[in-house]
Amino acid sequence: MRPRTYVAIAALTLAGACSMEPPLSVKAINSYLAEPADLANVRRIMVLPFAQEAGVQAQCEQVRDAFVAELLKLRRFEVVPLPAEARENEMLHDSIRRGRLSTEAMVRLCDRYALDGVLLGSVTAWRAYTPPHLGMRTQLISVHSGATIWAVDAIYDSGDRTTISDLRLYAKRTQQADGSLHDWEMNLLSPAKFTNYVAHRFVGTWVES
Fold first, then answer.
1. For position 51, which CATH number holds?
2. Is 83 helix (H, G, I), strand (E, B) or coil?
3. Which residue, 205, 192, 194, 190, is CA-closest to 153?
4. Residue 135: left if φ>0, alpha if ψ -120 to 50, beta else—which one?
5. Given a cut of 90, is residue 16 above it in pLDDT?
6. Are strands 44-47 and 148-157 parallel, antiparallel or unpaired?
7. How many CB atoms neighbour CB 99 within 10 A?
């Protein structure tokens, strides 16, 4: 074989290798889950309305609804509806913003509705239009110990390669192909779909040993 032929084959091989996409992978995010003994007696919980951090304009109700929908799929908790007249959530969020959780407000809420825990969430970043991003900070507090037993803090920004890789993997594993020209990219075009994706990833950090 002539030297020029070798060069041509090498060039084609290199071009093929460069065109190969890296394998899809799950985005690593910050999360904490307590020991099994601390989780065992937290079964009946309430998810309070999500707050939004300063400077963030988000559809908090839509984000909370997506989170609760994913939470119910765990079949791990009894999620108690929040009565319209409940006001303790404002006290809890205000105390967290001041840097100290109001134990009085949490105990009052848990006693009134026979809860084992309260889940607090806040939206830390939000953009509905392309490229969308959504950041959240959530924590589940046990009324029995007063400690946080589950916490997640992450931002999913579709302008980031790790988020896109994770999103494509999510679509491949959880969504059925519908023949759409956009396929997995529909999750970028629909704020509701992108929110569902992020909620799925947040709740997915609950993995008991």
1. 3.40.50.10610
2. coil
3. 205
4. beta
5. no
6. unpaired
7. 6
